[in-house]
Write a structure and sequence with these properties.
This protein is mainly α. The chain is built from six helices and no strands.
C-alpha cells in the first residue's frame, strides 16, 4: 500500500462526500461539491505521476485506478442527469457510460487472451478524460439552466468529450480486432466453465 495507491483510495472515499454535498440544498453547495470532485480528479493525475516518478507501479494500483476513475465519473453523470432532467445531458451521459462498459469488457477479454497491452490508454483517451473532467466540474459548480453561459460551456465540453469517447472506443476496437477475430475462431472451452451473467 504505497502513496499512489493511497491517493487512488482517497479518490474513492471522496465520492460519497461530493454526492452528499450536491444533494443537500443550500448556498454554495454546487461549488463545494465541484471542488471535491475537482480534488478527486486531480488525484487521478497525481497518483499516476507519482507511481511513475517513484517507480511504485503495482498490479493492485493498475486494477484500482481505472475503477476509481469510472466510479467518480459515472457517479457525477448520474447526479447531473437526475438534477438537470434534460435529454441534452442524458444523451452524452449514455454515450460515456456505455463506452466505459464496452472498453472495460474489451480490456478484460484482451487480458484473458494475454494481449492487454494492445488496448493500453492512448493520447486520445487522456485528452478525452481531461475534457470530461473539466465539463463535469463546470456542470457541478452551477445550477441547471441554459441561461447560464457556464452551463452551456459545460454541455459543449461534455459533447466534445462524448464524441472523443466514441472515437477512442473505435480505436480500441480496431487495435483489438485481430485478437477478437482469433478468439471467435477458437473452439469452445473444455474446462467446464460457464459464462456468468449479472
Amino acid at each position: 500500500m504505497n502513496l499512489p495507491n493511497l491517493l487512488t483510495l482517497s479518490r474513492i472515499l471522496l465520492v460519497p462526500f461530493f454526492v452528499l454535498i450536491y444533494a443537500i440544498p443550500g448556498e454554495g453547495t454546487y461549488l463545494y461539491s465541484a471542488a471535491l470532485f475537482a480534488l478527486a480528479a486531480f488525484t487521478d493525475w497525481l497518483d499516476g505521476y507519482l507511481a511513475r516518478r517513484l517507480d511504485q507501479t503495482t498490479p493492485f494500483g493498475a486494477f484500482l485506478d481505472p475503477v476509481a476513475d469510472k466510479l467518480i465519473v459515472v457517479t457525477a453523470l448520474v447526479m447531473l442527469v437526475g438534477h438537470h432532467s434534460t435529454l441534452w445531458l442524458t444523451l452524452p451521459a449514455i454515450i460515456i457510460v456505455g463506452r466505459e462498459i464496452v472498453v472495460s469488457a474489451l480490456r478484460e477479454w484482451m487480458a484473458e487472451m494475454n494481449r492487454r497491452g494492445a488496448v493500453k490508454v492512448s493520447w486520445l483517451g487522456r485528452v478525452k478524460t481531461t475534457l470530461q473532467m473539466i465539463a463535469l466540474v463546470v456542470l457541478l459548480a452551477n445550477p441547471p439552466g441554459f441561461d447560464d453561459p457556464w452551463v452551456t460551456l459545460g454541455y459543449v465540453l461534455l459533447y466534445v468529450a462524448a464524441i472523443m469517447t466514441l472515437w477512442s472506443m473505435i480505436m480500441y476496437l480496431q487495435a483489438a480486432w485481430p485478437t477478437l477475430r482469433t478468439g471467435w475462431q477458437q473452439p469452445g472451452r473444455k474446462d467446464g466453465a460457464t459464462d456468468s451473467h449479472s
